[in-house]
Amino acid sequence: MAATVAQKDVSTFLRSKQNVSDKELAEEWAELDTLYNKRLWHQLTLKLETFVKHPLLQKNDNLIQLYINFLSTFENKINPLSLVEIMAHVIQQFQDKQEAIKFLEKTESKVKSNNEAVALCKVLIGQILLDKLNNQELAKKIIEDVEVMLDNADGVTTVHGRFYLLASRLYRLQGKHAEYYRTALRYLGCIDLHSLDRQEQEQHAFFLGLAALLGEGVYNLGELLAHPVLESLKDTPNSWLVDLLQAFNAGDIVALERLKPQWSKVADLAAQELKLRQKISLLCLMEMTFKRQANNRQLTFTEISQETRLPLGEVELLVMKALAQGLVRGAIDQVAGTVHMTWVQPRVLDRSQIAGMVQRLDGWCKDVSSMEHLLESRASEILTL
């Protein structure tokens, strides 16, 4: 396709494009003409990366014609990753999405020397497969291939954000809450949150909140609670979700009951009420263990029953589940009806949890200081023994 476009044809194309009524756009085309004639490929690349976003070029097949009559003549002279970034806009104008995939596959072969560019090509193909063709199976294969490529990359690349967004969309469609939670958080960690509009932020916050509650094995809710994306839910009809997340993080079963009129209206949460109650009971047990001093982590079955609001006969099973999932470590004394905890799984703490830890640390410091003074006052007695 590129080989059929001669130098004079490029000049003719660029001059014809300068005869548009919009003066600003005409000047943009003239600048492209100048940079091309001077063979300033780097500057031309930078210009094209912004030019393809021009509102007047988003109609019909303007960007496809830009590629055929202009970009294709020097695509081997510009940065491979930048080329694919530009192609990401061009493919939006392909009516036939299978043709768009073929176009990207050809582009992939042209940029095979650059792993990031190849990975981005694959991600763009994955987006078409998932969003336009609803082919989850092939999209999953793409995600698996790209994940291996990015695992071998040095640090976080510009492709990581797009990859995590694609993967999170697939997991959400498949109802894989835990996988969605982890990849969606990673996506937000790769981007500037302000690049998303308010509605997009609210959507991410809402879906993340549901995934945190429903996700199997997701107990570290503090990571999400500390994320600024939840600010987007304030003063909205879904602001209760933040309160519910805080209730789960604290193992607050009273708050769960108080918020039931709100969360029970969400079909996914209402359908999983039993699992939600099991999860908050486990978090309650973790919080009870965390709040205790290291030298006083013996919990009675009665105390656990009162905090979790579970029948006394179900307490031992709850503790066994917590031990089996690696949330806590300890030993059960069935005869005495007690549990001696030795460890609780580390989590991202909220401010109240940190404040409690500070108080315990202060208490420990006072105990150490008292022991120090005791040793000083009785040093002579100890030395004469």
TrEMBL record:
GO terms for biological process: ubiquitin-dependent protein catabolic process. It comes from the Eukaryota. It comes from Vespula germanica. One of its GO terms (molecular function) is structural molecule activity. SUPFAM superfamilies: Winged helix' DNA-binding domain. The keyword Metal-binding does not apply. Component of the 19S proteasome regulatory particle complex. The 26S proteasome consists of a 20S core particle (CP) and two 19S regulatory subunits (RP). The regulatory particle is made of a lid composed of 9 subunits including PSMD13, a base containing 6 ATPases and few additional components. Belongs to the proteasome subunit S11 family. GO terms for cellular component: cytosol; nucleus; proteasome regulatory particle, lid subcomplex. Keywords: Proteasome. Component of the 26S proteasome, a multiprotein complex involved in the ATP-dependent degradation of ubiquitinated proteins. This complex plays a key role in the maintenance of protein homeostasis by removing misfolded or damaged proteins, which could impair cellular functions, and by removing proteins whose functions are no longer required. Therefore, the proteasome participates in numerous cellular processes, including cell cycle progression, apoptosis, or DNA damage repair. Residues 179-346 form the PCI domain. PROSITE patterns: PCI (PS50250). This is 26S proteasome non-ATPase regulatory subunit 13. It holds the Pfam family PSD13_N.
